């Protein structure tokens, strides 16, 4: 069991306490656990309902780090079907910022992003995922974001 403390302003805290009384929760922890589970389920469902996406993945890394540039390039080549474009910015003497535009199946895109972010030496990894109507890579030059 892991313990953490969160800070709420008074208004939000009293609204939350009112809600958990109405719902019959015995304490705040039980209510927060249920909400977290619900949110995680919703996110999983959203992935399932939006099977295709476009995404931008950004991260920073030190190009002096042993083999890292090569590993990142290789990862992108291994998934050339997902990688639409990639931009490299030399931030300073050591650090590089890369943004990779991706398109494909949501679960595959997410797995690729997770693997890249998990590479040793990759920092500030963040993905912005936009669900699209269909696999825009097949027969369509443009994608329609879903609302
Ligand atoms: Ni660079």
Quick gist of this model?
The protein has 147 residues and is an alpha+beta fold. It folds into 2 domains: 10-49, Arc Repressor Mutant; 52-132, ACT-like. Chain A, domain 2 (Alpha-Beta Plaits), CATH 3.30.70. It is built from 4 helices and 4 strands; from the N terminus they run ααβαββαβ.
What report would you give on this structure?
- This protein is α+β, with helices and mostly antiparallel strands and 147 residues long.
- The chain is 41% helix and 28% strand.
- It has helices at 10-23, 28-49, 68-78, 106-118, and strands at 52-62, 83-90, 95-105, 122-132.
- A 4-stranded antiparallel beta sheet has the order 2-3-1-4, with helices on one face.
- β2 (83-90) and β3 form a beta hairpin.
- The mean pLDDT is 88.
- The structure holds nickel (II) ion (NI).
- Residues 63, 88, 90, 96 line the site of nickel (II) ion (NI).
Helix count?
4
CATH superfamily of the largest domain: ACT-like. Chain A, domain 2
The average pLDDT score comes to 88
Structural domain tally: 2
Helix content: 40-55%
Number of strands: 4
| Spatial ordering of strands, largest sheet | 2-3-1-4
Subunit arrangement of the protein? single chain
Q: What bound compounds does this protein have?
A: nickel (II) ion
Along the chain, the helix and strand elements come as HHEHEEHE
- The appropriate CATH architecture of the largest domain is 2-Layer Sandwich
Shape: extended
Class computed from helices, strands and strand pairing? alpha+beta
Low-confidence stretches: none
Q: Which value, in Å, is the CA radius of gyration?
A: 20 Å
Using the coordinates above, name the CATH class of the largest domain: Alpha Beta
> Describe the biggest sheet?
4 strands, antiparallel
- CATH topology term of the largest domain: Alpha-Beta Plaits
Beta strand %: 25-35%
Distance from N terminus to C terminus (CA atoms, Å) equals: 38 Å
